[in-house]
């Protein structure tokens, strides 16, 4: 073997040695990160017990929180990607519970509810919500408050159980016509899920201000949420972000919207539509669909909320609360 060959052998041997070390290091890092995430979820589950009750819906636990009293019940439907509706709707239900009974349910895959194998078609979701309300002892008539993609399940519920619904408040919520023509993206789902499962997002949340600065950028930094609930929301985000149930809801949004359109509009059930200034300005198609959303009822009003982003209730909850109180009083 000549000198050049010996040098090449040494280089290859060295390369293989460092490659093996890198692979070993990567495996160890992944195992440690995965274990760190699992341990974190376990400890968070121990620390944060459900504030409401768990009821069985199609064999799985669904969490339903309720507070207050009244002849009418206000039911909150969260948008896709909200990990803890109990925290997200706090600025609304904390005030409204003085005027009526309030209910916040966690769809499967959010909050304290389990994941499910049931299909995420809109009829199934509406039936699950109805079952959860019944089993947790809630009584109609209901006033629904729906944020974002929560509009679809709220409309489906109203179509199926029309006699139980006295009104709907939509918070930057999508017109089914918009979702029909604009499929929702899930392009970052796979990479985000990997980062979550192997502890990367947990490390970033716990060592930087990424949670408030990035995740809460369109939530006004969670400034209207008490600090203890902010910590709960971060824990729930680390548990529930990019779950399979939420992904299935995104993928089915176009089909679900078409189902609602086929089933017909809502007659004279009062609907109040609140549109964020940021979305109405930035997205002409969204703005147009919000104006056209009024056609879903003969008793409808739309308001563009100045200075707000997508989570209007975390910027200007008072304007939404006032509207809901008027609906409670039949105005």
TrEMBL record:
<dbReference type="InterPro" id="IPR000073">
    <property type="entry name" value="AB_hydrolase_1"/>
</dbReference>
<keyword id="KW-0378">Hydrolase</keyword>
<dbReference type="InterPro" id="IPR052370">
    <property type="entry name" value="Meta-cleavage_hydrolase"/>
</dbReference>
<protein>
    <submittedName>
        <fullName>Alpha/beta hydrolase</fullName>
    </submittedName>
</protein>
<dbReference type="InterPro" id="IPR029058">
    <property type="entry name" value="AB_hydrolase_fold"/>
</dbReference>
<dbReference type="Pfam" id="PF00561">
    <property type="entry name" value="Abhydrolase_1"/>
</dbReference>
<feature type="domain" description="AB hydrolase-1">
    <location>
        <begin position="87"/>
        <end position="175"/>
    </location>
</feature>
<dbReference type="GO" id="GO:0016787">
    <property type="term" value="F:hydrolase activity"/>
</dbReference>
């Amino acid at each position: 073997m000549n000198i050049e060959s010996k040098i090449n052998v040494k280089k290859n041997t060295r390369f293989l040695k460092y490659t093996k070390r890198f692979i070993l290091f990567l495996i160890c890092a992944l195992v440690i990160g995965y274990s760190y995430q699992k341990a974190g979820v376990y400890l968070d589950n121990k620390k944060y017990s459900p504030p409401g009750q768990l009821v069985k819906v199609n064999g799985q636990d669904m969490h339903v929180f309720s507070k207050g009293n009244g002849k009418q019940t206000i039911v909150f439907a969260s948008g896709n990607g909200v990990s803890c509706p109990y925290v997200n709707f706090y600025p609304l239900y904390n005030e409204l519970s003085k005027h009526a009974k309030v209910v916040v349910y966690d769809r499967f895959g959010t909050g304290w509810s389990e994941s499910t194998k049931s299909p995420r078609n809109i009829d199934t979701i509406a039936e699950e919500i109805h079952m959860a309300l019944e089993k947790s002892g809630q009584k109609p008539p209901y006033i629904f408050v729906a944020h974002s993609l929560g509009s679809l399940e709220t409309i489906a519920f109203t179509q199926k159980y029309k006699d139980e619904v006295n009104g709907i408040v939509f918070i930057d919520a999508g017109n089914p016509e918009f979702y029909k023509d604009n499929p929702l993206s899930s392009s970052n789902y796979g990479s985000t899920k990997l980062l979550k499962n192997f502890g990367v997002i947990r490390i970033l949340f716990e060592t930087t201000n990424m949670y408030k600065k990035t995740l809460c950028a369109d939530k006004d930094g969670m400034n209207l949420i008490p600090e203890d609930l902010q910590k709960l929301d971060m824990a729930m985000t680390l548990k529930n972000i990019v779950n399979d149930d939420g992904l299935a809801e995104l993928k089915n949004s176009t089909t679900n919207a078409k189902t609602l359109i086929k089933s017909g509009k809502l007659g004279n059930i009062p609907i109040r539509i609140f549109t964020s200034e940021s979305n109405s300005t930035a997205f002409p198609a969204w703005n147009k669909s919000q104006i056209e959303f009024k056609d879903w009822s003969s008793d409808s009003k739309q308001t563009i909320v100045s200075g707000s982003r997508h989570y209007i209730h975390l910027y200007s909850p008072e304007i939404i609360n006032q509207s809901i109180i008027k609906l409670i009083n039949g105005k």
